[in-house]
Backbone:
């Protein structure tokens, strides 16, 4: 059968129109505004609100100014913090834990599977103000549930949000987002024909061998999708602000919180916009990197 | 025989590990099961004696907060309808028409939307909404959410539709259906599980978010629950733990019910294919 | 560029909205005030006294509504800035005076007389308002709004705790920082778990750090944030002395509650510490007395008249304070401004003037007794207010009326946090402050005294 398109140009355009209009008005227009403003010193208050100047790349240079780059509370230190945060909480935390859960859930009793899925998904779907408050109560120094458990186990209490603020938000973000990866991998695994695994069982393969040789290679595409999405989401996640406000001493000021401070506390829109553009470029680099790794490994397996 | 034993031990090991991870997910939420029913609740975990609905009575009397729940519903449902319909039509068109470089387009839109979801774009969005005279309207919140969520929704749905063979619609068209009929009668029922995923995801995203309604709305009677919840903070900004816990439970119920409903009706998982 | 943008938005607006003729006039007021919540007294006064009174005066054609804003000060500033830049927003808005210069420079506020003309110039209220009070909401000599009143800062003292440590609270008045620290040490020795002395620092507390903490110490070294030519002082002995005071209190001797200065809800923790008798000496504004610890409020101090007293903040050493003073304090003021784009310019001014009429301010005293800006409004019968204003208004100082102050203040907060958390030494923190301030205002507007 010759390949023909199912939709005519006109119908296709009509189908695209509603989404196109909304995206055009509320994604593409603001996007180009952000790019444009990142080359100006526009602010909301002060003289440059009325009469902003075109400053070329000055905002970008000030972000990457070597003298202050690594100072806590400046862009560079926030960028490094964010990359650590994304690698630990999204890639290691959400994706790896989600993969582990999805794999294990295939061979545990049904009731346990349902229960675990439900609490994990609960962590993912509850509103962020609710979740932040639950964690605030959970980590409270004087009365929090975690310190109650620590005491019961004869461990010393921890002042979690002050002594380990970064680890608190890493664990928090892992906890919050694992459900998505778990569900995605879950359905990916179940799309693999069961006969593949049965054959491996007959050959006496261990669970790890089945994962390494059958499960993982067959869902590689899903892994890339998952990593692209959760990396992007974690780069943009604002919820830790509700837990730590970026503090103490900027130790949890990941880029979304940094941008918020620059754009909405200092009202420095030019610089805030520049941060937004840089974050997008970093997302692009991460996405290309994932695609490249997966293609290379796919070739390696084929060879 | 050895392999059966191996399987058996793997099962036990996996069950223990899964249970432990389950506990890790459950622990921070345990407090929320008890505190709403405890008229003397504090940040510490304690079992209410006796169980009481007094906190809820107080919450029901706060008109601002109750209206907040209704507003959240209006904004979420409105946004979900636009995202669901817009993304389905658009991703179907992208999947089934011969536009060159369409996966690049979807991906670029996804990256754009990541810039816009950051706080840097709040200002242009405010200016646009103000320019079209929609400041302080629910429709503004709905439109902005729809625009922001559509790229990701299309990203998820397009991969899903790509995995459905074209022969479904082709055979319908051979039988004389128009392309539009083929879409509504043949493709749509097959895509439905994918739409459910997108709809749930969009609903949850809008239901919980704070910043966009906060920037775009002014009157207190239009604010959603995520903003109204701050009326349970005292004068100086300390949480009134008892009322906050009870309200949080009410605020969480719709998404929990939605999850239970969808998982009962469809089995809550991603069907078939999200792939890059 | 701005004009282009405006033309674009205007054409968009024209294309999509239908102008509707207004028959009756609507006025809206916004303030960070919620009945039963934050600044409850203010909300109650506007709702129960101002609005009914104004409606009675103008007739039913005028409808006034109050939007009770429940978020933080910063969030309100954010919304107002966006609103004023686009023509949206309330006609009359609650506003902190120190933000006026940066809003004016940004074209986000207009002088009262430019908005409402002769009605402003001829207002009979001006003759009852001192220049100092007018200055609280003015920039470059022009008033942009009217203040609700001014405030002063003192050390609030728990008399019962002092007594327990064998100090007579009635006569206790530290003459120097050394006196202050000595008392704190005595109290700490008496009760090692307590945090006897709290001086605000850190980022989470925002402007409260700069006003209640940093300024109160810095003024005692004879310096201000700027010199007499308006240049920002970026390195000096005064800054170092101030930071070393913080270091002594929070890092070296743990005389103050360090966690309260670092956590997001820290300011409430300091209030709770004072209420619960964990802190004996807290530097705060008289708002702490008027509102925070008032009977029936969350941080009400039990038996307040007996256990709570106050003392003046001493200079580092007698005579070493600003202008050679022995004691120091600083004042600010919040009030109301007019939206520069209001459709009802004259009416909005009439409402603002009505709020500041003798009758309405006298009525306000029943909700919240305070020193009002009008000299024909009687001072409420509260000895604390009378005493503090008498003792401190002659000594007080104001923040620089400068558009960049807000940004510099944020750097002050970072500098103090770095020291209080033990992250940086006072010298390193000051050197980082110097770099940051130079970036904000430019090197020529700064001065180094070391």
Residues:
């Amino acid at each position: 059968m010759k390949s023909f398109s199912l939709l005519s140009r006109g119908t296709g355009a009509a189908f695209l129109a509603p989404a196109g209009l909304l995206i055009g008005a509320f994604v593409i227009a603001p996007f180009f505004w952000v790019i444009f403003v990142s080359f100006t010193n526009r602010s909301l208050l002060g003289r440059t609100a009325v009469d902003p100047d075109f400053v070329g790349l000055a905002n970008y240079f000030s972000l990457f100014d070597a003298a202050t780059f690594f100072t806590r509370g400046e862009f560079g230190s926030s960028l490094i913090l964010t990359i650590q945060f994304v690698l630990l909480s999204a890639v290691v935390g959400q994706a790896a834990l989600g993969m582990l859960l999805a794999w294990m859930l295939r061979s545990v009793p049904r009731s346990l599977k349902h229960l675990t899925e439900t609490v994990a998904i609960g962590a993912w779907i509850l509103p962020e103000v609710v979740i932040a408050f639950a964690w605030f109560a959970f980590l409270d120094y004087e009365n929090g549930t975690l310190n109650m458990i620590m005491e019961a186990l004869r461990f010393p209490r921890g002042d979690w949000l002050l002594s380990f603020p970064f680890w608190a938000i890493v664990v928090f973000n892992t906890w919050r987002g694992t459900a998505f990866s778990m569900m995605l991998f879950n359905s990916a695994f179940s799309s693999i024909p069961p006969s593949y695994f049965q054959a491996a069982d007959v050959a006496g393969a261990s669970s790890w061998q089945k994962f390494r040789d059958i499960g993982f290679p067959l869902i590689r595409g899903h892994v890339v999708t998952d990593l692209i999405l959760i990396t992007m989401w974690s780069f943009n996640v604002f919820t830790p602000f509700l837990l730590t406000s970026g503090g103490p001493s900027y130790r949890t000021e990941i880029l979304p919180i940094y941008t918020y401070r620059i754009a909405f506390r200092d009202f420095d829109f030019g610089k805030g916009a520049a941060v937004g553009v840089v974050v997008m470029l970093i997302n692009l680099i991460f996405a290309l990197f994932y695609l490249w790794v997966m293609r290379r490994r796919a070739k390696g397996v084929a060879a | 025989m050895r392999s059966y034993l191996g399987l058996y031990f793997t099962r036990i090991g996996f069950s223990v590990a899964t249970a432990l991870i389950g506990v890790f997910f459950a622990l921070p939420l345990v407090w929320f099961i008890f505190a709403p029913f405890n008229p003397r609740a504090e940040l510490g975990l304690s079992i209410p004696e006796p169980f009481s609905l007094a906190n809820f009575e107080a919450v029901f009397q706060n008109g601002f907060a109750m209206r907040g729940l209704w507003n959240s519903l209006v904004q979420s449902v409105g946004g979900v309808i636009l995202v669901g319909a817009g993304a389905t039509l658009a991703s179907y068109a992208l999947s089934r028409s011969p536009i060159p470089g369409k996966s690049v387009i979807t991906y670029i839109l996804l990256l754009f939307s990541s810039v816009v979801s950051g706080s840097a774009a709040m200002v242009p969005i405010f200016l646009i909404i103000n320019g079209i005279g929609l400041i302080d309207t629910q429709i503004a919140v709905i439109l902005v959410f729809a625009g922001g969520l559509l790229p990701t929704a299309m990203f998820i749905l397009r991969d899903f539709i790509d995995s459905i063979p074209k022969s479904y619609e082709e055979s319908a068209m051979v039988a004389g259906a128009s392309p539009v009929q083929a879409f509504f009668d043949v493709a749509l029922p097959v895509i439905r599980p994918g739409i459910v995923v997108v709809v749930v995801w969009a609903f949850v995203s809008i239901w919980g978010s704070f910043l966009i309604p906060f920037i775009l709305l002014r009157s207190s009677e239009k604010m959603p629950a995520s903003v109204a919840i701050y009326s349970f903070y005292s004068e100086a900004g300390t949480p009134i733990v008892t009322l906050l816990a009870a309200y949080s439970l009410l605020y969480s119920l719709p998404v929990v019910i939605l999850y239970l409903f969808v998982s009962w009706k469809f089995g809550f998982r991603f069907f078939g294919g999200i792939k890059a | 560029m701005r004009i282009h943008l405006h033309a674009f938005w205007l054409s968009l607006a024209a294309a999509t909205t239908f102008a509707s003729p207004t028959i009756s006039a609507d006025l809206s007021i916004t303030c960070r005030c919620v009945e039963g919540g934050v600044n409850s007294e203010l909300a109650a006064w506007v709702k129960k006294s101002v609005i009914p009174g104004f409606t009675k005066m103008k007739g039913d054609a005028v409808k006034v509504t109050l939007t009770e804003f429940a978020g933080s000060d910063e969030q309100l500033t954010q919304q107002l800035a966006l609103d004023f830049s686009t023509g949206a927003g309330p006609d009359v808005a609650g506003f902190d005076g120190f933000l006026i210069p940066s809003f004016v420079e940004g074209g986000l506020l207009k002088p009262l007389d430019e908005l409402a003309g002769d009605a402003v110039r001829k207002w009979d209220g001006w003759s009852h308002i001192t220049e100092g009070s007018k200055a609280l909401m003015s920039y470059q000599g022009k008033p942009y709004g009217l203040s609700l009143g001014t405030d002063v800062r003192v050390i609030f003292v728990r008399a019962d705790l002092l007594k327990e440590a064998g100090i007579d609270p009635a006569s206790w008045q530290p003459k120097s920082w050394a006196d202050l620290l000595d008392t704190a040490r005595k109290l700490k020795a008496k009760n090692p778990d307590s945090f006897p002395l709290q001086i605000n620092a850190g980022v989470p507390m925002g402007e409260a750090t700069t006003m209640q903490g940093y300024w109160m110490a810095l003024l005692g070294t004879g310096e201000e944030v700027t010199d007499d030519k308006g240049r920002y002082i970026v390195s000096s002995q005064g800054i170092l002395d101030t930071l070393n005071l913080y270091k002594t209190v929070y890092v070296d001797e743990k005389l103050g509650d360090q966690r309260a200065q670092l956590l997001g809800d820290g300011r409430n923790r300091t209030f709770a510490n004072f209420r619960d008798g964990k802190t004996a000496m807290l530097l705060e504004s008289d708002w702490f007395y008027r509102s925070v610890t008032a009977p029936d409020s969350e941080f009400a101090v039990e038996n307040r008249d007996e256990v709570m007293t106050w003392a003046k903040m001493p200079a580092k050493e007698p005579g070493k304070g600003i202008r050679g003073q022995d004691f120091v304090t600083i004042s600010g003021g919040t009030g109301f401004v007019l939206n520069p784009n209001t459709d009802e310019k004259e009416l909005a001014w009439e409402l603002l003037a009505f709020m500041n009429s003798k009758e309405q301010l006298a009525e306000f005293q029943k909700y919240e007794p305070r020193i009002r800006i009008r000299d024909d409004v009687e001072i409420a019968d509260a000895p604390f207010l009378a005493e503090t204003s008498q003792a401190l208004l002659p000594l007080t100082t104001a923040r620089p009326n400068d558009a960049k102050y807000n940004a510099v203040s944020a750097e002050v907060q970072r500098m103090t946090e770095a020291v209080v958390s033990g992250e940086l030494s006072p010298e390193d923190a000051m050197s980082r402050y110097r770099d940051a301030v130079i970036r904000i205002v430019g090197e020529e507007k700064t001065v180094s005294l070391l």
Notes: Residues 269-302 of chain A form the longest helix (34 residues). Chain A is about 75% helix and 0% strand. The radius of gyration of chain A is 23 Å.
